[in-house]
Structures are given as structure tokens and as C-alpha cells.
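> @MW can you paste both from yesterday?
MW: sure, first one:
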Amino acid sequence: MTRTIAAMLLVVTAALAGCNTVAGVGQDISKGGQAISDSAEKAK
């Protein structure tokens, strides 16, 4: 569980570092949320 959270924080940090605009941040967060949702659906 701790490794999962650490990995998620690393991904979020990398995504925010790669964004140039507020709109880009929103898109990256949306894509990250979609990836998490997809993973959760597959785990069911």
C-alpha cells in the first residue's frame, strides 16, 4: 500500500513538472484519474 501511494505521488509530481499551463495540469490530472479508474475496474 505504501509503495502504491509513493508511486502515485511520483507520477503526480512528474505530471505537474511536465505541465506548462493550468489547462495542461487539468488534462494531466484527468488522465491520471482515468488511469486509476481503469485499473480499479480491471481489479474487480
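MW: second:
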Amino acid sequence: MSVCSCSSLAPTVSTIRTSTSNSSSTSSGIARLHRKPQKPLLVMFLKGRDASARLSIVAVEIDHNTAVKRERCECYNSHSSCRVSCVEQERGGTLRAQRWDAEDLAAWDVAKVGEWQRKEGEKVWPNLRRVSMKFEKMEDRYKFAGSPCSCNVRTTHELSRCNLESHNGLFGIVKQVGDEMLRKYHSEQDQASSRTIQLGPVPEGDF
């Protein structure tokens, strides 16, 4: 099992050269297109206990409302030895997820995960409300989801400090990175739409 993001931690920027012309003048400039970052994914590789059971890949999108719900098990106690983590939506909604089954290891196609994520309207695994994971060791569960803390997380800085202390595990770190990338993208889009861009001559060294 792993938590991953199919997008880079840095914004994706493509630089293109443009030129405009009319009857009186010709000018050139550089335009930047910002691609909307994809949401992080919780990706699980599964196999049933039955020897004949199929192999499966399950991908669950992590958004601002996706959370580890400690009240579903015994993780609400900081001294608990609970090995279970439950992932749900904060407001009780359904998780956006997909599952792919394979007959054998050779048929496991990880590329399907990225292809599905790029198609936002693609069908999903319906009515999935909770993913419960039992880890082999308590230490593994702690690395994934952390443990209860008394941190005040009203600001982004406070949340970052809490995550750096591993209180929310890898899940919390990946979730915050995804949120920050999306927030930065929307902020840049708002700024771009509120100002007038004028194209001027491109410096000779840029060619």
C-alpha cells in the first residue's frame, strides 16, 4: 500500500512563444499555461486470502475533505496500540475511487491509475464511503496516519508544523501538499483574469 501523487510537487508550466501581427506592427511575447494539478491518490495493491482470488488495484482521490477518522477505531487514544486506519470524507460523502481487477501479476497495469485520474468524468467505484486498513505493525499505521495531538491548526503554518512532527502521518503531509498546489493554481488563475496582459518584444537572448 502506498500514498502517492500523480502530479509533480511543482506547478506544471509550459512556455510557448506567440506572435501577433496587423497592418501596422508585429510583436512577440511569451505566454505561460498553467495546468490544473491533479489530486493526490491513495493507491492500494490488493489480493484476497484465497489462492484463486484476483489481484486488484484501488485508487482513492484525496481532497480537502478526505480524512483519517480516528473515532472509527481505537486510534483516538494517543496510547492506543490500534493497527487500523479508516479513510472517509469529513462530511459523510462518498469517496471518489476506482478499482481494477487482474487475473495475474503480469496483468497489473498501473498506467490505468493515471489515465483514470486525468478523465474527471470517468466512472468511479460507486457508493464507497470508507476504506479501512489494518497494518501488520502499529508503527506502520503511525507512519501512515500519525496519532492524536493537541496542536492548534487554524493557519497553514500551524498545520505544516503539526505535519512536520508526524502527527498526521504521510497521509496528512500528502493531503496538505495537494491542497496547497490547488490553492496556488486557483490564486494564479484569479490574478491572471484580473489583470490585462500586454505582449511586448521578446529579448533577443530568449530565442
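> thanks! The beta strands are 2-4, 13-21, 26-34, 41-47, 55-61, 66-68, 84-89, 97-102, 131-134.
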